[in-house]
Amino acid sequence: MLNRTMLFACSFRHFAEIADIAVACGWDAVVTATASGIDPAYAESGAPVVLIDARGAIAQGLAAAQTIAPRVAEDGGALLFVLSRRDCTALDRVFELGATHFLIDPASDGELIQSLRFAARHVTRAPGRPGIVDRRDAMAGARFGRDPNLAQQWIAARIGDGQPVSVVLVSLSRLDIVNAAHGRPAVDSLIEVAVERAEVVAAEAMAGAARVARLGGADLALVVGAGAADIAALIAALD
After folding, report:
1. Cα separation of 42 and 79, whole Å?
2. Which one of 59, 142, 148, 224 is most buried, counting C-beta atoms within 10 A?
3. Beta bridge partners of 9
4. Which pLDDT band holds residue 106 (cuts at 50, 70, 90)?
5. Judgement on whether residues 110 and 210 belong to the same structural domain of the protein
6. CA 24 to CA 3: how far, in whole Å?
């Protein structure tokens, strides 16, 4: 699978620890120490796995889950909620808010990593979500030929035939500002415009030897039947 952000984490008291664990997992991650702006930040990340680390901050953790859990459920994602043993009485509330997994501290880093692995597998098995791809983007991909699985097959076929192939990853930024000002429909429309622009540029530059794949969230990939020498012009045209 093409690289993309795997984890969105909110940790109020253990920010550095969670960031280190994400590195240990080999995952690209967005880690925040505050719940301020958590919903648009998660939406922009496109991450399929969400971690809310409420150890020593149960009230803040529950508030964060209440904010973000509906969107995680809508996207077919997984939400791992970590809490201190003294706060176990809040588990019913954690369940009601929509968490798919939980872990009680004290727990080792290894146990937390295993919990994240289970959460990631949950996402791959979500109905209508092939691999780890945003469910809405998977439907859009099927409709417009932007399915990342088809792009992977195209890459494999070209490599098998000994033909050149390159991948240009594109990530749209500052969508949280658009979301705050105009709402999610405006963000979706902006992403669609960007994808259509990428398709036009790729078609003109590569005479059809290209594919655009939606990776989820604000991420997309241009899969191009060309070597490095031809990619600079394509990137310049996208700018």
Report:
1. 12
2. 148
3. 31, 51
4. very high
5. no
6. 16
Contact call for residues 171 and 163 (beta carbons, < 8 A): no
Give the C-alpha separation, 201 to 127, whole Å. 33
H helices, E strands: number in the chain? 10, 8
The string of pLDDT tens digits covering residues 62-103 is 999 999 998 888 888 899 999 999 999 999 999 999 999 999
Q: How many domains does the chain have?
A: 2
Annotate 113-169 with three-state secondary structure: HHHHHHHHHHHHCCCCCCCCCCHHHHHHHHHHCCCHHHHHHHHHHHHHCCCCCEEEE
- Extract the tokens encoding 211: 């594919």
Q: For residue 87, give both structure tokens.
A: 């706060």
- For residue 129, being part of any structural domain is answered with no
**Complete DSSP assignment for 80-125:** EEEEEGGGGGGHHHHHHHT-SEEEEES--HHHHHHHHHHHHHHHHT
d(CA 7, CA 78): 10
Backbone angles phi, psi at 212, to 5 degrees: -115, 125
Instruction: For residue 9, give the DSSP letter.
Output: E
Is the Cβ–Cβ distance between 50 and 9 less than 8 Å? Answer: yes
pTM for the predicted model, two decimal places: 0.55
